[in-house]
Amino acid sequence: MVLNAGPVAASRASHIAGPADTTQRSFPLNGNASRAGKPTRHERRAAARGREQVSGPRRPRPEPAATSRPAWKSPIALITGGVLVVAVVGLIALQLLPGSGHSKAAAPGTRTTVGILVPALGTDITSAQGRSLGRADAPLKLIVWSDYQCPACKNYSETIEPRLVTNYVNTGKLLIEYRDMVIIGPESQAAAAASRCADQQGQFWPYHDVLFANQAAENSGALTPNRLKDMADALGLDRTKFDACLPSTDLLSQIEVQTTEGRTRGKSTPTLDFGSRVIAGSPAYPELAKIVDELLAAAGTPAASGAPASAGASATP
What we know:
The protein has 317 residues and is α+β, with helices and mostly antiparallel strands. Helices cover 43% and strands 9% of the residues.
């Protein structure tokens, strides 16, 4: 027998036991059904309270411990270190790059990395004053008219003049003065100007020696402006001052004037000018020493050897 439950009961019965549905579904007492068998929020909360009763309340996850950073990794330390590195690199550049201050002088008897030879034995500058050697009140004066590309000038400078310095200049009897007589070409003029720039730094004679030590074929590139600057580096000159001086038109004018004067005293280089006596070229040392002794005797000064002027060469061979 089927009870007549009215329209609502009939509708509910169609959802419970239809001809093709044998699955038993449950309904909560409060009439709110879960969807597709999923627990309601009320059921989830109840389940959570049950788990807490068994295992205790959930503990918060501990925060990871903060790791300490090394002091050198701090931003301030890194910035400070970077500034110091830049400063050191800048100082090195100022010391080494061309045209930026002093370079370290090369040792005598060595070549620089760009091939500049610094002679092992340079001019004795004990009594040097600018482009002169000796006492200003010496009884005899020798003016050397010279060209830095002249092979005979190189020979005089390296083999004869040092003996004159030892025997006559350092004993107060002779004053030697270097003067430019540019007769070979543009590199001679450039070298003369560079030697005057070195003179402004008190280094005329060392630079004079380096010029002759690096002499090559005439106007072949041995005395170009860049090579002249390399020679300044080899002696440790202040390149900022040297570079500013080198293209000076005033110096070139002075060289031209001096060359014109030199041509009135001689027609070749070197010309050894004692005033009363002018010698073309460079004689062997014994012959030159004899001339010096004769001129000293005429001036009332004993010969370098202490012997009469006719005795010839000085004490040093």
